[in-house]
Hints:
Blueprint: H1 5-26, H2 32-46, H3 51-86, H4 88-98, H5 105-116, H6 122-140, H7 144-161, H8 166-175, H9 179-205, H10 215-220, H11 235-240, H12 274-297, H13 303-311, H14 314-330, H15 337-348, H16 352-371, H17 373-384, H18 388-403, H19 406-417, H20 429-439, H21 449-458, H22 462-490
Amino acid sequence: MDWTSHDTWLVTWTLVAIAVVVVLITRYKIHPFLALILGSAVVGLGAGLAAANVISEFEKGFGSTLGGVGILVALGTILGKLLADSGGADRVVDTIVGRAGERRLPWAMALIAMIIGIPLFFEVGVVLLIPVIFLVARRAGTSIVRVGIPALAGLSVMHGLVPPHPGPLIAIDALHADLGQTLAFGLLVAIPTVIIAGPLYGIWIGRFVNPTPPARLVAAFGIRASAQDGPGPGVAERASDKADDAVEPSAQGAVGDDIDVGDPEDRPTSRPGFGLTLATVLLPVMLMLGRAVADITLDKGTRVRTVLDFLGDPFVALLLAVLVALFTFGYLRGFSRQKVSDLVAGSLLPIAGIIFIIGAGGGFKQTLVAVGIGDAIGKAAAASGISALLLGWLISVGIRLATGSATVATVTAAGLMAPLLSQLPDTNTALLALAIGSGSLFLSHVNDAGFWLVKEYFGMTVGETFKTWSAMETIISVVSIVLILALGVVV
């Protein structure tokens, strides 16, 4: 089909709407939830939709997105909160670090981050691991960057590429991708990406950047061990006792404030074992992967496949994991029923903003679908010869650079790519979801709260933060998209 003036009109108003969202977020500090609503109104009204239809389409997209993604984000958050407060994350850290020699510490930190990063939000994982990074670096007599970058890489890759994190779930929902397939491909891409951006880059850049963490933070975490002490059991428990509630995802600007030690009576009487912790955390992953394998290897309608399809449904898998965690990370740890209930309630409060951004992103996507932008983008993509995977990555990179938000980048890119799929039937939607997630991690800089979170915790200058954190994020994005494009050739 030939390009028309109407296509130009649609693309123009789409670009104007995106610009409105970016300017409102970056210049006027409007919350992304409101910015996405206004952006939807701009593209809808500008493209010729009736005002009533703009409202109904936005509400339709908002409701359908929260009905799918919102529930999964909430369940994943509950699992992560129970893991952290029960001491399960500490057990994983202690076990792995305690068995790693000095030369293997960067690799051990990356492995730890990937394991506990499955259910935890990035910011929560950072707060949990920062005291451990401080202590391990001091006891090993090495640069904090050498052990810190691998940990940050593990957390960031899991956050951007592996469900049930919000970013991948947003893309999966918008593109109607298969979650099990996305999870399998995501893990396949994540492992080599973490190796390159984490231990390999961290060991190299650690030779040139050796910052001194703020003395106030070090003292607050109770780290007084000498460099001659080897890491052993109890490392994470002692360090994280004073950091459990240091920074919530919604309070990133509080870095360096006084840290609340917390009530000793709220702590578990015993920590879960290493095997039990792994089994609980990996349960939803195994169930979802089991469904993906069954869909490939078993005939539809067989009893085994029916059971695996049910258990591997993302909602069922995460719900079962949470129910198991109530016992393994809750009641069996000595927590009362009221305490477990309070933990669940407390886990949901910080994600309210994220949930509403996700919903508004769904509304924005549905508005774009309603105005017919997919046809126009499809024509442009066909004329340019750019693959759908690379196009999704480039759009996500652009929004990430402009807004500093991985979530907004994923929401916007997925919304633009979703209506294009009808014209690209051969596109693997799971890989497209991963490509968008990969782009959302590109070059974290001064408009990203994570940039300042890492800078302040590590005690680095702005330049050092660019050389370490920003470079690491860029490596993650570039390496992962190369691997995704390679998979696209063979899948």
